[in-house]
Amino acid sequence: MKKQQNYIWPTVIAAALALGIFVGGKLHFADSPEKLFTTNSKKDKLNRLIDYIDYEYVDDIDTDSIVDVTVNQILEKLDPHSVYIPKNEMDRVSENMKGDFVGIGINFYPYKDTISVIRTVPKGPSYLKGIKAGDRILMADGDTLYGKDLASEDIVGKLKGEKGSSVKLQVYRKTEDKTFTINVKRDIVPIKSVEAYYMLTNDMAYIKVNRFAESTYREFKAALSELIKQGARKLTLDLRDNPGGYLGVAEQMADEFLKDGKLILFTKNKKGKINKIHATSKGRFEDKPVYVLINERSASASEIIAGALQDNDIGTIVGRRSFGKGLVQREMELGDGSAVRLTVSRYYTPTGRSIQKSYENGNEDYYKKFTDRFHSGELVTVDSIKVADSLKFTTPKGKVVYGGGGIIPDVFVPIGSNEEEAVESMDSFGWLSYFIFEHLDDDRKRYNSYSKEEFVQDFKVDDILFEKFVDYSVQRNLRMNFYNYEESIKLYLKAALAEQLFGANVHAKIKSTEDKMLQEVIKLDNPVVKQGEAETIESNN
Fold it and tell me: d(Cα 341, Cα 329) in Å, to the nearest integer?
């Protein structure tokens, strides 16, 4: 049995996880800061040192940057998930976790140094003013939005503003070879955390959640309600690559599947105080089959849901061992617009297991444990997962589960070959999307006659488009045996086309036929009727 493979993305993925993993919320103190933070010699020592540097050091020094470095170094000594958020990052971080921002409602590429619209947010400000995919935005309120030296944050800053304020845009439309000016009124634009939802089979819904923001539970309930109307009696909840978010949102979502009084999780702080969270009676999917998809990049809030269901003998967890993050952070303001997310407690699943992996040897070793999975064989065979017997727990129905470094799924699905993962990574890291944008920019009218349903059912990527993609990739030094994976690449090209033409739902639905975990769910759900169909799809990978 092949247990080791070379994987091309683990370092990139680990870096992304280091920045993104979070579970917790904002901390609101009952006491005033003066009462909470009393003067002490440790604080005075740091303040005095900074003052000496500021006033007496021989050279001019930016003491703000020294403070930033000092705060980061202090937090690095604590744990991998206590982090500092500088003032200039707070708006972006807050928007992402809030789930919306005020802007003009476009997705764009800085294509050839010009803002090029990929698509507009349906019924958003730009959509209502007639801006279309492929349009170039040249100026905003007289400020130029093209050129090599213009950073993305500068562009975004010119397009954002106060709700109800207007921005005057100069737009070039390539398909009509004309330039025009319009005023767009800024409004609230959602940042969707429910990335996609649709009917996977006649009676099974599929919902993909990419993080747990303030808006996630509302989005989830709305998607679930719509799918129930379409006949959903079962659910596949996709938490793959979901790094976490707000603890309370994960609790609300888990509550949808658990009966009144069932334990969701409990937390314990440094004083030993235990806080137990139980399900209520309002869950809409308590007696229906649910499958939860996880992988090595599913962390914190994702693991809370998977652990709560697994420990209560609800549903089936499918995939690969999750990341292993069992710490809870609180966001605390530092008074100058910056903040820290400080670990304030540990959380435990209903059986009492902590799924936090060890971080006693520092951050570098901590994230190395993640990349080691790519080389140990763990992602290929479940037998390669080594867990001590002391970390063994038992659910109420007698199922053995483990703590100490992630949620081990009930049903294991191995990672694909290096080449298969490369094809997936070309999609997830935007390679295919950028190529498709160029293709549509040259020939957008070709697709005008397709409806969503017709595109999914009838459209096929031809050899001409495939060869163009191969040439595009080779010219940019991407090396792989494209022809061994021609059918997979063609399907991913179709999915990338669908995303830009019709949105994330159609993109996800097209990819589902190549998704090994989803095909495993179909087999598990109806092994007699569906197994042959799923195996046929798998054999084409």
Answer: 6
Question: Active-site residues: which are they?
Answer: 300, 311, 325
- The helix (run of H) or strand (run of E) holding residue 506 is helix 504-511
Query: CATH classification of 100-190 is 2.30.42.10, yes or no?
Result: yes
| pLDDT tens per residue across span 176-203 | 999 999 999 999 999 999 999 999 999 9
Give me the residues of the chain with pLDDT under 70, please: 1-20, 22-40, 528-541
Burial of 19 (0-12, 13-18, 19+ CB in 10 A): exposed
Q: Which two tokens stand for residue 512?
A: 């589902």
The secondary element (H helix, E strand) that includes residue 467 is helix 463-475
What is the H or E stretch that residue 197 is in?
strand 194-199
What tokens were used for 300? Answer: 């914190």
pLDDT at 23: 67
pLDDT digits (tens, 9 = 90+) for 293-318: 999 999 999 999 999 999 999 999 99
pLDDT value, residue 239? 99
Superfamily of domain 198-412: 2-enoyl-CoA Hydratase; Chain A, domain 1 (3.90.226.10)
- Residue of 514, 414, 426, 492 lying closest to 9 (CA atoms): 426
Residues in contact with 510: Cβ distance below 8 Å, sequence separation at least 6, in sequence order: 456, 491, 494, 495, 498
pLDDT at 26: 58
Contact call for residues 275 and 332 (beta carbons, < 8 A): no
- What residues does each domain of the chain span? 100-190, 198-412, 418-539
For residue 329, give the 3-state DSSP assignment: strand
Q: What does the alpha-carbon distance between residue 337 and residue 179 come to, in Å, rounded to a whole number?
A: 41
**Predicted TM-score (pTM) of this structure:** 0.89
Enumerate residues 6+ apart whose C-beta is below 8 A from 129. 182, 183, 184
Evaluate whether 189 touches 501 at the Cβ level (below 8 Å): no
Name the residue type at position 195.
E
